[in-house]
Amino acid sequence: MKLNKTIALGVAGILSATVVFADSHVDRAIQGAINARQSHMQLYAFNLGILGGMAQEQIPYDADMAAMAAGNLATLSTVSQAAYWPPGSDSAAVEGSRALPVIWEDFAGIAAEGQKFGEAVAALNEVAGTDLDSMKAAFGPVGGSCGSCHRAYRQPE
Amino acid sequence: MLRALTIVAVAGVAGAWFLTRPASLPDDTFAGMTGDPEAGALVFAAAGCASCHLAPEVTETAETVVLAGGRRFASDFGTFIAPNISSDPEAGIGAWSDLDIANAVIHGVSPEGAHYYPAFPYTTYANAAPQDVLDLIAYLRTLPADATPSQPHEVGFPFNIRRSLGGWKLLFADAGWTVDGDLSPEAERGRYLAEALGHCAECHTPRNALGGLDRSRWLAGAPNPSGEGNIPNITPAELTWSETEIAEYLNSGFTPEFDTAGGEMVDVIGNTSQLPASDRTAIAAYLKAVPPIE
C-alpha cells in the first residue's frame, strides 16, 4: 500500500513536471510569435515614420528616401503572417499581447483589413517618389487603414 | 409621536421627490438667437455625437450621417443602447422643439420629463455655450431621418429606477470646470473642447462605485469600460508628447513613434480631424495645463 502510494506520487510528480515543461515550451513558441508580429509592426512604424515625417513637414521631402520607405512597406505587406497568430496568443491569454481574442473569431474580417492595407501601401509605393503632394495624398489612406484595424482588433493598453 | 414620525417621513419622501425632479431650461434660453447648421457641424464633430449614435455597421467616414442608434455600450450597471436621434418624427427627435433637445443635451431630461442615463454625457455638455447647442440642433435637423426604433437599455434593478438618477445628478452633475486657475486663452478654448464638448474624461478618468467621475484623478487613466485593457493616463505625468505631437495625433491618428490610435480613439480622431487646426492645438495646450497625476 505504502509502495503504491509512493509510486503514485512519483508518477504524479513526473506528470506535473511534464506539464510544467510543456507549458514553458508552449509559452516560448507563443512568445516567439508575439515577438515576431510586434517586430513586424516596428518595421512598419519605422518606415511610416520616414514618410510621415515628410508628410507632416518635420523633415524635408526626399524622393529617394520616400521611395525606399514606401518600397519597404510594400514588401513588408506581402510577408506571410501565417505563423504569427497561433491560438492562445491573444490579450486574454497572454501578458504582453494586445491582440484581442476577436481576431481568432473573425479571421475574414482581419484578412479584409490586411487586404485594404496592402492596397493602400501599393498605391503609396506607386507615387511616393514622385513629389510631396502625391505622397501625402497616398499616405493618408495608409494611416486610415492602420487605425481601422487597430480600432476593432487591438486592446487599448 | 407616530404622527410626527409619519410627517417627517412624508416630508423626507416629498423632499427626495422634489430634489430628484428633472430640471429644465428656462423657456427664453434661446431668445433672440438663431442656430447656424454649418457651425453646428463642427460642434457635432467636437461633441463626438456620431461616435455613439451612428448605426453599428456604419463607419465614421460615411458620407451620409444617419443617427439611427443601436450601438451597444456595456458597463458595470448594464448595457446601454444608443437611441435613434435622427430627424425622423416618430423614431428620432424630428418632432422635438429646440428646447426639448437642449434639455436632453444639457440636463439629461427627456421631453416627457424622465432622466436619461449618464452614458449620455450630458454632465459634460452642461458646460456647453447655448449658441453652440442651438447650432448643433440646427445641424441635427439637416440630417436624414431613419425609422429604426430605439431599443430599450438592458439595465437591471435597481439601476432601472430612473428617478434615482435625480439623486445621481445631485451628486455628480453641474460640476463646472475641473481644471481651473490661470489658463492661456488657447488652453481655455482647449478646456471648452475637452471638458464641455469632447468629454475626454468620460473614458480617461476613473469612476467611483456609483459611476461618478473621480475628479481628483482627472484624465489619469481608467479601466476600459468595455472590460478589455486600460484607457491611458493623458495628464502631463504620463503624456510627454509635445503640443505639436498631440495636435498631430488628433489630426492623423499617428503617435510620435508612428504607431496609430486604436479602439474608440479611432472614432475620436475621426471627429477631431474635422476641427480647425487651431482647435487641435488648443486641446494640446489644455492637456499640458492639466495637473500631472502619476
UniProtKB/TrEMBL annotation, chain A:
GO cellular component: periplasmic space
Domain of life: Bacteria
Biological process, per Gene Ontology: electron transport chain
Keywords, sorted A to Z: Electron transport, Heme, Iron, Metal-binding, Signal, Transport
Posttranslational modification: Binds 1 heme group per subunit.
Span of the signal peptide: 1-22
MF (Gene Ontology): electron transfer activity; heme binding; iron ion binding
Matching Pfam families: Cytochrom_C_2
InterPro entries for the chain: Cyt_c/b562 (IPR010980), Cyt_c_II (IPR002321), Cyt_c_prime (IPR012127)
Binding site for heme c: C146, C149, H150
Name recorded for this polypeptide: Cytochrome c-554
Species this chain originates from: Flavimaricola marinus
TrEMBL record, chain B:
Xref: Gene3D superfamilies: Cytochrome c-like domain (1.10.760.10)
Keywords tagged on the record: Heme, Iron, Metal-binding
Database matches in Pfam families: Cytochrom_C (PF00034)
GO molecular function: electron transfer activity; heme binding; metal ion binding
Keyword Iron among UniProt keywords: yes
Domain Cytochrome c intervals: 35-144, 185-291
Official protein name in the record: Fructose dehydrogenase cytochrome subunit
Species name: Flavimaricola marinus
